[in-house]
Amino acid sequence: MATVKRSFNNRTCEAPYLIFLGPPGSGKGTQAEKLQHSFRLVQLSTGNLFREHIKNETPLGLKVKGILANGELVPDDLTVQMVVDRLDRPDTIMGVVFDGFPRTRDQALALQDRLDAKGKCITAAVLFRITDDEIVERLSARRTCPKDNSIFNLKSNPPRQDEICDLCGGALIMREDDKPEVIRHRLQVYRQQTEPLIEFYREQDMLIEVDATRSIQEIEAQLDEWMPMFIYNANS
Ligand code: AMP
Fold first, then answer.
1. Eight-state DSSP code of residue 73
2. Residues near 125 by Cβ (< 8 Å), separated by ≥ 6?
3. Any residues with CB less than 8 A from the CB of 32 and at least 6 apart, and which?
4. Which of 28, 34, 120, 143 is an active site residue?
């Protein structure tokens, strides 16, 4: 099979497999949703997948319900298995944005093993940089749609109609784990377990950083500008 060199890190990948790294509320989900629409990448959000399982009361959903409500991390084996199952679906062949995964070093290693086995690799890890104060402010104004996972912010990105999803017309909710006490705990968990991944990806020359305090439109424009570096280029 022909190998293709990318301009970003000279890695040979067949399709963009991007990791969105950053604390809860840094805007990863909002931007992953946009890339899914504009570049047809699959948004693989482990948080959304867990919430689907909880809603459908599957065995996995029942197991992880309390863990999500407390802002803890689901054990690595359960998380990795869920991701592996999702990656086995054919729509992932054109590329994936991992949104909220990996969150531990073991998850990161398991993902690399899995992609190696499939002849694929991670194109880049995009770090969304933001302060804790801004996160607490943002998450307390965040509203999500439990039906289609759309994300709004009452201050910076309000729905057209109060508390109603623009897309499906369903009632928006505040996630249980966006309450201030749980947010603080999720931030601690992020610092302890996920933040070390910044160095993990930097050492491998995969890290690229975005200032996540900027507006949704500015970050979207920045990602659009970077996308050609991540996408297969037959002439390179
Ligand atoms: P998120 O929607 O990404 O903020 O995730 C919501 C919750 O789902 C987290 O607080 C964790 O309880 C769980 N979760 C999501 N992704 C992971 C992961 N990669 N590893 C472990 N737990 C996760």
1. P
2. 18, 19, 20, 21, 197, 201, 206, 207, 208
3. 20, 43, 45, 97, 99
4. 28
Measured torsion, CA atoms of residues 40, 116, 128, 140, in degrees rounded to the nearest 10 = 80
Q: In the predicted model, is pLDDT for residue 11 greater than 70? A: no
Q: What is d(CA 38, CA 22) in angstroms, rounded to the nearest whole number?
A: 22
pLDDT tens digits for range 158-187: 999 999 999 999 999 999 899 888 999 999
For the question of residue 143 being annotated catalytic, the response is no
Distance CA 135, CA 77 (A): 29
pLDDT score, position 9: 59
In which residue are the tokens 């890695």 written? 11
Average pLDDT of the chain is 91
103 carries an active-site annotation: yes
Provide the CA 53 distance to its chain's centre, in angstroms: 17
In contact, 131 and 137? CB cutoff 8 Å = no
Name the H helices within 97-179. 105-117, 132-140
**Active-site residue 186, yes or no?**
yes
CA separation for the pair 38, 214 (Å, rounded): 20
List the catalytic residue out of 34, 51, 103, 120. Answer: 103
Backbone angles phi, psi at 128, to 5 degrees: -90, 105
